[in-house]
Amino acid sequence: MTEKIEGDMKTNFIYTMIKDDLKNGLLGNKPVHTRFPPEPNGYLHIGHAKAILLNYNIARDFKGFFNLRFDDTNPIKEEQEFVDSIIEDIRWLGADWGDRQFFTSDYFETKYEFATRLIKAGKAYVCDLSPEEIREYRGTLTEPGQESPYRDRSSEENLDLFERMRRGEFPNGSRVLRAKIDMFSGNLNMRDPVIYRILHADHHRTGDKWCIYPMYDFDHPFSDALEGITHSLCSIEYSDHRPLYDWIVESALELMPEEVKFRSRQTEFARLNMTYTVMSKRKLRRLVEENHVSGWDDPRMPTIAGLRRRGVTPEAIADFQDRVGVSRADSTVDLALFEHCIRQDLETKAPRLMVVLDPLKVVITNWPEGKTEMVEMENMPGDVSAGTRKVPFTGEIFIERDDFMEEAPKKFFRLAPGKEVRLKGAYIICCEKVIKDENGKITELHCNYDPRTKSNQDTSGKKVKGVIHWVAEKHAAFIDVNLYDTLFTVENPEEDNEKDFTGQINPQSLIVCKNVPAEPAVKEALPGNRFQFLRKGYFYYDSVASREGSPVFNRVVALRDSWAKVNN
RNA sequence: UGCGGGAUGGUGUAGCGGUAGCACGGAUGACUCUGGAUCAUCAAGCCUAGGUUCGAUCCCUAGUCCCGCAGCCA
User: Fold this and answer.
1) Is A498 a catalytic residue?
2) Residue A39 annotated as catalytic
3) Which residue, of A41, A76, A224, A417, is most buried by count of CB atoms within 10 Å of its CB?
4) For B16, which residue's CA is nearest its C1'?
């Protein structure tokens, strides 16, 4: 039985490691404890969702805990606005941190104390080198650094200087506190890294209480140790920081054992990349600031806020993350996988509705003048419990313009002159006349219907290959619809470093369809509802863009379209 | 002659000494009142070269290619 449970567990290198840790008793009687440590300086995106769900799922699967900790060590970049959006996004994703919401700034005092102990232990010193000098002394990738002339100050002097740094006696950039490690290390991070800098700036939480702030490399491992994080997961670019992480944790254990809850360890995994999108905060910010999109929550953005407004469900995102897995290898996931997860989730959740996005009028010449017939349609094919609805059918309807072809190829199963097609839920019609304007544009079709072919009561014996959707003109409700395509025209917008990625933006990424006819049932839709517009895709009632009485629907994702493939 | 990572079908990911599996994507067919969904079938892979072994994707050696690192950012 245990084997069965083990078998159900995900098989990735992190789960394997944790199982081993548990088996080897590395955690003692401590439960597995993870965390997600966002810096509140921007919006979360789908790549963050990978990290959030990975950490959260581990805590869930191993019956442990998951913390949310804001990494707010840099007052210049961080804002409350982002704290709020991050909380909203993580909640929406379904990751639950219970009451364990922390700010790294909560521990500034403890961290200061730790720093002073480091100084007393001769493991840190105040350095007066300028930023430029520090860079020069650091050496290069291939050459070792050289030691700072301030490296061997007495701990009394260091302590005094550090206290005065805190008191605000020195200007920004004049001095820093550095860990005394090894200027000759092959790992740049170990060359006496800066651990505190002077920043006379207001912090979004601590206000003007501090004018010195810890650096990530000092702060992060220590916060993990304080919170008892057992497995500190981060992305690959932090691999080089791991020795420093361990140095800090070991030092904390040695100098501050009373505060340290666990000897945390860092494990790195590859971040998520997706085709047809960019993921870096900097690039996403440019898209917003240069108005290539309408904002952080533009439905074309890979941000959580954007995906939510697009209409993607948190379940689809979770499923996607499960399928993507986690490894240490660089990878770019095919957007098609994400779209598949979305479709699969919505397939059984989204009731069907008929909407014509590009209307072409059809007059049914033999339909009794003025007659409206209510036809019954399933809300969810294959799911009787979802019930049916009545849809009005009349002699003047709209069909999709591309469901008609004047000169149709053999494989075209829809309407063409002299050819028959079924109107979904209603009758089979045959096209008898094409009406055009002076420019040759088709403005209207005249068709006749076969009264024997009513859906579910068909006595004609006719078999037609094509079934199309329609909306009765007289009863139509009108809605606005946004059709989205990928924001970029190329799979990897960042591939060519010479070209700016904004040059690859897809001019067709948003197509707005105004006042498009929909069956009257759409009037009962509520903001936040999702539907499948028959044959057109899944759509989301966008509460942000909609106004009273004029709903806006965003296409979450189109349906798979095998005709489009045949077609080209 | 810096340090640290990584290479399994088109894409993502399992397998860690015993016939290379899953998913997406692709192809073909069936079914269908959504060219949707569903079902069936097929194509497609271990970076290279040596070595160890009865047997290597896995272990060893030597390469190749790719990624990250020189903020008082995180």
Assistant:
1) no
2) yes
3) A224
4) A13
